[in-house]
Design goal:
The chain has two domains: 181 residues, Preprotein translocase SecY subunit (Orthogonal Bundle), CATH 1.10.3370; 203 residues, Preprotein translocase SecY subunit (Orthogonal Bundle), CATH 1.10.3370.10. It is built from 18 helices and five strands. The strands form two sheets. It has a three-stranded antiparallel β-sheet. The chain has a two-stranded antiparallel ribbon with strand order 2-3. The protein is mainly alpha-helical. α9 packs across α18 and α12 packs across α14.
Length: 449
């Protein structure tokens, strides 16, 4: 406890770090206030229908990322999701389209161009999603009269404009947190939205267990298991396989360059949380059968039962297979062994015992496949843990923190934030946050969250 107080004093004594923390907290507070401001023309008493409909599937995922704003029909209902979608699309384009690859290699100017394209695409995606959200609101509030009659004629236009402006404002908040705050602004906004649901889910689980005799011990065991799962996720996020790389010595004049031995880190989970996000979107598609005549048949009803019940064995099996497949696919898109081999060759680097060029690329690719395999299985296990927890008696809300997108994002973002704080401490010759070693975050692109 004494060391903790000392560390907090050290953090507060650094003016730059103190201002970054306060700036970040103020912007996060503004975001959380905005999530409770209801859209113009909506009757707040009818929001129960929205919350009920947004409790699962892809709508539940959007509501999670939006910090509950989606189910509350707030001005930030779409949250940062349109920006994430645009970022993912642009990131894939930098891998697949030569023009975007060229921009990426132009350094700072290329990065600014890519960011500008991402913003333009965000506006288009937001307008489309906002229009769909208006239709969604009108459909689920038709019986309860959620839209005020006197405002019905202007509702579509005002809502699309408000949601688009709200999304761009949240995007601006994320960029400001990245520039002047603790960094990783978009990820921090998502994490805060997820954590906002934790107190209510925790109290709901505690209440559920306390009303029955002998269940408090079960609740304590659940908390212990949750802590163990968090520790396992930390290992999954930080786990790396280091490939030794030597650099040839060069003598220029009287000075010697190179000759050092470094390591190329291959992460166990290079794809981050993206495979789980993709898998959740794919698993939602079969439920669209409800919109067709097939929904009335026995086959359609069976498909709907499987893909809407997260505790179903078939759902978890299919979900795990999809996560594993997307892990390999996304890793192959973002990780290019040939490019790494060429970069090593250009910088006079080589892997000991492996010839430069294509043999090095094959060697790195083989190591990547071996490391990705257990990482993909562990990621699939994390993805289905909420369903398993719910089967074992954990309430639906609290079970989401036992794995899946919520837990991975929280672990990764918290590690990144702690690493930022520790770096500031070490730069000023203070002790780090831990005596046993440095906190390792993750070095990922902005779209990997």
């Amino acid at each position: 406890m004494k060391n903790l107080i000392k560390t907090l004093k050290n953090i507060w004594s650094i003016e730059e770090l103190r201002s970054k923390i306060l700036y970040t907290l103020i912007l996060i507070f503004i975001y959380r206030v905005g999530t409770h401001i209801v859209l113009p023309g909506i009757d707040p008493t009818a929001l129960g229908q929205v919350a009920k409909q947004a409790s699962g599937g892809i709508l539940g995922l959007i509501d999670t990322f939006a910090g509950g704003a989606f189910s509350q029909a707030s001005i930030f209902a779409l949250g940062i999701m349109p920006y994430i979608s645009a970022s993912i699309f642009i990131q894939l384009m930098t891998v697949l389209v030569p023009q975007f690859q060229k921009m990426q290699k132009e350094g700072e100017s290329g990065r600014k161009k890519i960011n500008q394209w991402t913003r333009y695409l965000t506006v288009g995606v937001t307008v489309v999603q906002a229009s769909a959200y208006v239709a969604y609101l009108k459909q689920i509030t038709a019986q309860s009269g959620g839209v005020m009659p006197g405002y019905a004629d202007y509702f579509w236009l005002s809502t699309v404009v408000t949601l688009t402006a709200g999304c761009l404002f949240v995007m601006w908040l994320g960029e400001k947190i990245t520039d002047k705050g603790l960094g990783n602004g978009t990820s921090l906004i998502i994490m805060i939205g997820i954590l906002a649901r934790l107190p209510q889910s925790f109290l709901q689980e505690l209440t559920n267990k306390s009303v029955r005799s002998g269940q408090i011990l079960v609740f304590i065991i659940e908390i212990a298991v949750l802590i163990a799962i968090i520790l396992g996720c930390i290992l999954l996020v930080q786990g790396t396989r280091k490939i030794p790389v030597n650099y040839a010595k060069q003598i220029v004049g009287n000075r010697q360059f190179g000759g050092a031995r470094q390591f190329l880190p291959i992460k166990v989970n290079s794809a981050g949380v993206m495979p789980i996000i993709f898998a959740q979107a794919i698993m939602f598609l079969p439920t669209l059968f409800n919109l067709t005549s097939l929904a009335k048949t026995e086959t359609g009803q069976g498909i709907n039962r499987i893909f809407t019940d997260h505790t179903n064995v078939w759902y978890m099996t299919i979900y795990a297979v999809v996560v594993i497949g997307f892990t390999f696919l996304y890793t192959a898109l973002i990780f290019n062994p040939k490019q790494i081999s060429d970069n090593l060759k250009q910088n006079n680097g080589f892997v000991p015992g492996v010839k430069p060029g294509q043999p090095t690329a094959d060697y790195i690719g083989a190591i990547m496949d071996k490391v990705t395999l257990p990482g993909a299985f562990l990621l699939a296990l994390v993805g289905i843990l909420p369903g398993i927890a719910q089967l074992l008696g954990v309430t639906a809300g609290f079970s989401t923190f036992y794995g899946g997108t919520s837990l991975l994002i929280m672990v990764a973002v918290i590690l990144d934030t702690l690493q930022q704080i520790e770096t500031q401490l070490l730069m000023r010759q203070y002790d780090g946050l831990m005596k046993s070693g440095r906190i390792q975050g993750r070095t990922v692109t902005q779209a990997s969250y």
